[in-house]
């Protein structure tokens, strides 16, 4: 099931995801990026803020401001926990 967040047009705020170890083992996120996409068009992309909460939990944050009222965006996170590269998507609904 895809997560959804709601924005009012003109809002700029952080959208955050938690990354947790499924086996409660320590891990490190080497890099994390995001892409805010409306259809096939990229509206914004950049580096995520990475905040380590514990050895087995990390918070990834993207500061976004969608520009089209009534649109549903895809916010895609791509992060690396060596040797793996993982993706997670959040739907952003703008009213």
Describe this structure in words.
This protein is mainly β. It has strands at 3-7, 13-20, 31-38, 41-47, 49-54, 57-64, 72-81, 84-94. The strands form two sheets. A five-stranded mixed beta sheet has the order 1-8-7-3-4, with no helix packed on it. Strands 2-6-5 form a three-stranded antiparallel beta sheet, with no helix packed on it. Strand 5 and strand 6 form a beta hairpin. The mean pLDDT is 96.
CATH class: Mainly Beta
Instruction: Please tell me what the overall shape is.
Output: elongated
Q: What is the β-strand count?
A: 8
Q: Tell me the strand order in the biggest sheet.
A: 1-8-7-3-4
Topology pattern, helix = H, strand = E: EEEEEEEE
The total number of structural domains is 1
The parts where pLDDT drops under 50 for at least 5 residues are none
Radius of gyration: 14 Å
Tell me the β content: over 45%
* Major beta sheet summary: 5 strands, mixed
CATH topology: the name is: Immunoglobulin-like
């Amino acid at each position: 099931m895809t997560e959804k967040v709601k924005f009012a047009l003109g809002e700029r705020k952080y959208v955050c995801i938690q990354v947790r170890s499924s086996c409660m083992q320590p891990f490190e996120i080497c890099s994390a990026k995001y892409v805010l996409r409306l259809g096939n068009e990229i509206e914004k992309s950049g580096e995520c803020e990475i905040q380590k909460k514990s050895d087995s939990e990390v918070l990834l944050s993207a500061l976004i401001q969608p520009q089209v009222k009534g649109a549903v965006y895809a916010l895609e996170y791509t992060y690396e926990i060596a040797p793996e590269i993982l993706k997670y998507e959040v739907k952003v609904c703008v009213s």
